[in-house]
Every structure is written in structure tokens, then in C-alpha cells.
Amino acid sequence: MNDGERRAALVSAARAVYEREGARGFTLQNVAVEACVAVRLVRRYFADREAMLDAVADVGFELLERRVRASLEKRGLMDVLRNQIIERKTLDLITAAASFTDVPFEFRKPDADAVDHAVCGAVVGEEEIPTATHSEPAPARGPGRR
């Protein structure tokens, strides 16, 4: 068994101990018993309990990453995720290199000005609007209409 295989076997044993015993029962001695090796061999690959916990966590994250990736690929969402990552990185690059200046917002001035209206050549306001003094002729009725 080479070093990579031995380390993987120890991490697998450590994972089994952690799942069975929890954090309190997770010791180098228990991992050595699970892997059927001497504690000295476990210490050769992992300096202490924390280093072994880090290795178990790394393997767990790798497995989780593979599961998420497989799920995304199965649902056809991998390209969507890839595009979102590219978009985010592009925006980060743009904003990192950009310089921004605060400019107060000003409303556009209207193109036309209001003017008073004229009726029969005289400028009038609302109170001076003339009223009709004669009635309009009734509409003509055609034959057969009543």
C-alpha cells in the first residue's frame, strides 16, 4: 500500500470513528483501532487530532461538491451556474478597476414653456372663457328616421 492509499484508508477509518463515536470519541487511538494499525503510524500521517479532523472535513466537502455538481448537471443547471460565476467575476473586475464620481441628479428642463391661450385674439385666463350665446342647429333627420 503506497502513502496515498494508506492516508486515504486512515481518513476513511477516521470518518467511520467520527460518525460512530462523535467528536468526544474521535481520538487517534480509536482511529488506529478502526484502521487496525499502530497509533505511531497514524501520527506519521497526522500530527494531531485537529489535523485528522481537517482531513475528514476535506473529504466530506469533496463528496458534497461532487453531489452538488452531479445534481446540477442532472438538472441541466451547470451552464447557468457557470454563467453566473463568470458574470460575477466580470462585475468584480469592472468595479475593481472603475472609479466612480457622485453626480447629483437634475431634472431635465422642459422643452416648451407654458403660454396663455388666446381666444378671438384676446388673451384670457380661466375666469374669462367666453360662453356660447346661441344654440347649435339640430342634426338633420333622414327619411324614415324619427
Predict the CATH topology of the domain at 3-97.
Answer: Tetracycline Repressor, domain 2
Order of helices and strands: HHHHHEE
Which structural class do you get from the secondary structure elements?
mainly alpha
Report the major sheet. 2 strands, antiparallel
The average pLDDT is: 84
Shape: elongated
CATH superfamily (homologous) name of the domain at 3-97: Tetracycline Repressor, domain 2
Tell me which CATH architecture of the domain at 3-97 applies here. Orthogonal Bundle
Count of alpha/pi helices: 5
- The value of Rg in angstroms is 42 Å
How are strands sequenced across the largest beta sheet? 1-2
Question: Care to describe what's here?
Answer:
It is a single chain. This protein has a domain at 3-97: Tetracycline Repressor, domain 2 (Orthogonal Bundle). Strands 1-2 form a two-stranded antiparallel sheet. The longest helix has 26 residues, at 49-74. It has helices spanning 3-21, 28-35, 39-45, 49-74, 78-97, and strands at 118-119, 122-123. Helix 1 (3-21) packs across helix 2, helix 1 (3-21) crosses helix 4 and helix 2 crosses helix 3. The chain has 146 residues and is an all-alpha fold.
Please describe the structure with a list of short key phrases separated by commas or semicolons.
about 150 residues; 2 strands; two-stranded antiparallel ribbon; mainly alpha; Tetracycline Repressor, domain 2
